[in-house]
Design goal:
The chain is an alpha/beta fold. The chain contains 13 helices and 16 strands. α1 packs across α13, α3 crosses α13 and α9 packs antiparallel against α10. The structure holds (2S)-amino(hydroxy)ethanoic acid and manganese (II) ion (MN) (2 copies).
Length: 418
Amino acid sequence: MLSDSVVEGPPPNAGDVAAFRKLWDEIAPVGRDPGSGGYLRYAFTEPELRLRDWFRRQAADRGMPVEQDGNGNLFAWYGDPERGDAVLVGSHFDSVPYGGGYDGPLGIVSAWLALDRVRESGPPPDRPIGVVAFAEEEGARFGVPCLGSRLLTGELTVDRAAALTDSDGVSFAEALGGRPTGARPDLLARVGAFVELHIEQGRALVDLGAPVGVASGIWPHGRWRMDFTGEANHAGTTLMSDRRDPMLTYAFAVLAANKEARRSGAQATVGRVEVEPNATNAVPSLVRGWLDARAAEVGTLDALVAAIDQKTAERAVRDRTGFRLTRESVTPLVEFDGGLIELFGRVLAGGVPVLPTAAGHDAGVLAAHLPTAMLFVRNPTGVSHSPAETADDIDCAAGVARLADVLSTLATDPGEGR
Ligand code: HGY
Ligand code: MN
Ligand code: MN
């Protein structure tokens, strides 16, 4: 039953909670910064490579083959994927800088545990089951979010991906160990449905009193690079009237983004900035900032970005600075599969609320290519992309149970979710 008020379903038993905690503890320390408690799990860096090895060990422990799709995405198969129509579950390992430990990995740990419950419940189901770990979902190292899933689906060109570099100048191709393969229609053709479980990045489930929810869709959102250019000069000897200071135009852009977003009920964030020469006693020559903008409708998003662009360009004239806005990635409105959402409502005991999100996910990319849906697990504070992100074991175990219910139904009941 899909509802916006919920009767809590059957709570998970102590054994399920312990099983979650046991598997969770295997990865929880990996990439955790001792000072802040945040995670530094950038794609193909040592911590994330350790998590990939852990993924391969989980597959080996279950006698499951693992394939890497040539784009950095890992797939473990239960049953013969060549049979086709597989049910895929999983998420990503990578984090934003000093992010939380649940954003991504919760979906992968839950996928393994849900698969175990399906395996324990009887003979292998008709449909193969795949567990996936997508590469570079956050875009924290190479700048393009959902890089692995966008390559897999052909939404990003190989040339563009191969040339992406991190802050040390290492290219994605070097980190991957070779040029990415790009679109894999052959692999996608083997998948009949994808379900991503993810910690909710918000407080809707807290306010509804529900441990688990279903995503209706994802807001249109994107990221734009803002380049501000001016004239480097001495901080002490350059008169204020003689300056062409890009930091001023940058500061104006940040305030304009905030004002325009509030005015239009959208979200706008500038959380990343680079300055050259980045010296305390020098007027900068260049400031580079990144705008993350999101809105419930694409028209609102377009108008928001256009307003920020236009107002900042006008300010740049007054500051005698240069300004350029460059689109780096945009995700259109995502509406998850109605058949899967309806199935979730039928299968998930106790009822589950259906809620939109403004957070991007690999499921948002896959949704344009195959039946896709998401389950959310309650986030007691709503905080994410922060060391403060947390979730309760009992809610995580409830998420595993609901994912197992859905997975079992999809994999064993022919015709479900198509
Ligand atoms: O940025 C996002 O919305 C996601 O958490 N990667
Ligand atoms: Mn994230
Ligand atoms: Mn995520």
